[in-house]
Amino acid sequence: MHTNERKTALVSGANTGVGFQIAKALADNGYTVYLGSRNLKKGEAAVAAIGGLTKALQLDITDNDSIQAAVNVIENEFGYLTVLVNNAAISNAGKPGRTMQEILSAQLASITSINEMKTVWETNVFGTLAITQAFLPWNCSLICHKN
């Protein structure tokens, strides 16, 4: 961890819900907060609502180019990341306009399609791992042994 008093955080999926509240709490506690959002306009609206030292950042955790762009922005603007909050996730990958029953059924592993399950896992498991790995090298010198 940096001993520098400037603290910075990235919260994925921060334009609504729990991610928004986490970003707000971090901003209220003196962090510069990058609000990761697949839709930049929604992220910008969240930044406007939170205020403080917040910045919208287009981030799709299932897109390696988007992840690398986020790494580059934070590295160029701040130089390091103090906190990474992996909040981005999806509960289903179905088409808009489905009934609540269809959405709930899509969450049952026994009846949902394999393709839908793969999409959820790509986001919630592999996307989360991808963003963690992308930012880990910054702190790795503190906890890892490099060859």
From TrEMBL:
State the source organism's domain of life.
Bacteria
Q: Which residues form a coiled coil?
A: none
**Xref: Gene3D superfamilies:** NAD(P)-binding Rossmann-like Domain
Q: Which InterPro entries match?
A: NAD(P)-bd_dom_sf, SDR_fam
Q: What GO molecular-function term can you cite, just one?
A: oxidoreductase activity
Q: Which family does it belong to?
A: Belongs to the short-chain dehydrogenases/reductases (SDR) family.
Indicate what this protein is called per its UniProt record.
Short subunit dehydrogenase
Instruction: Give the species.
Output: Flavobacterium lindanitolerans
